[in-house]
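REQUEST ID: PR-0412
SUBMITTED BY: lab tech R.K.
PRIORITY: routine
TASK: structure prediction, single protein chain
INPUT:
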Amino acid sequence: MALALPLDPPRSWSPVLPVAAVIGLVALPAGPGGEGGAGPADALSALVVLYCGVRLLRQRRRPLSRTAALVFGLPVVGAALAAAGAVSPGAGITGLGRYLQIFVLVPAAVLLLIRDRRDFRLLAWSFVGLAGWQGAVGVHQYVTATGASYQGRPIRAVGTFGPQDVMGMATVVSFGIVCAVGLALGRTAAADRRLAGERGRGRGRVVAALCAATLLLPLALSFSRGAWIATAVTCSAQLVLAGLRRALAVGAVVAALGVVLVGGFGVGTAMLQERVGSITQVTDAPDQSVTDRYTMWAAAADMWRERPLTGVGLKGFPEYRDSHASVALSAGSDTDGAGSGFVKQPLLSPHNMYLLILSEQGLIGLLALAGCWLALLVRALRGVLRTHRGRPGLDCALVASGLLIWQLTDFLYADIGGPSTVLTAVCLGLTAWWSLAPEPRSPEPVSARPAPSRHERVLPR
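STATUS: complete
OUTPUT:
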């Protein structure tokens, strides 16, 4: 039986296989008590950067275009200034290395290693596969009551990340849904199907749609309000970008599926309804987690007002938190279950990436990072418009745009930290390839191209 995803011969996989391996290593169980430290995937991401550098030297290629160098250079400026003002040299070096890894080095390496749409799709399917594995573990945790503690019951789906990183599985599953939706919405026009290696793509779109629908269940059982909001916003944006008519049709199917799952089968009805309702009740009767989050947001804003341009320095939020937070802040969040004992985790970040950057790097750092993300988003959306004017690659455009939209939305409720953080770097790399990779000039019309042989596997973007 033919595979839904066409793959190249092994000798042509080498540029992106290390990146796919980084995604795969995130599936490994987190070590007991691990709290945001470097893991196997982070170590391999450093080797990916080294591998990319060696390839550039051997091929004598220009590393980045001027536009790409400018976009990736912006975060370096703000992070370097904040590192100089850190509370200690060690904290400054550690924080600078983390920011460069996530927002500069790994994304640039992914950009340079991807050759064409086939490599891009391989990484997108890797995200879907990782999400499927983590989602299956999460559903098993809910069914067997072996998950993390939620309202006194061990039912929260956290996958292999454990209770110390309850957002990990939700993030991975969300990435899988975004990639699957983008792959499922790829254009079905004959112009795309006639390109080399594009035959059989209809089957792949069906598989992607089924994967996206299946992953909704573990996302719901993660009880992660931020991931729910970010995924809903992103998938809605992808549907609109794919075409309004298709958006209405798919929206109706999703609504019907939700009615069947929740209304017909009663999937987590009471707790899910309560969790969804709490999104709109944060100002009326917030739970302690919401109170803590608002208190830390206020503390981060107070730090910024104290040092508006450069912030308190990298890794400085935990040091200045108590002097700026009100008495409403609790001592920490309680975690339990999923193979770990009861632990009270300290609150070391405001759980809002924009406020974290603003408090530690000031306006300079926020404008630098936000400028990088905005440039990637604008160019990615321009690429979507080009696909509607007859260029191939609508599925890649929707995946690239969706991953960035999801991340920028989720940053309103979360920040970097934990084993899944390295996936943020890979997502930025995928978006950067679609946004910044050079395009062929004056492409030959599809109808005028001769039929490629089965050995001509490299595709234009």
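NOTES: Confidence is low (pLDDT under 50) at residues 6-11, 188-198, 440-460.
REVIEWED BY: pending
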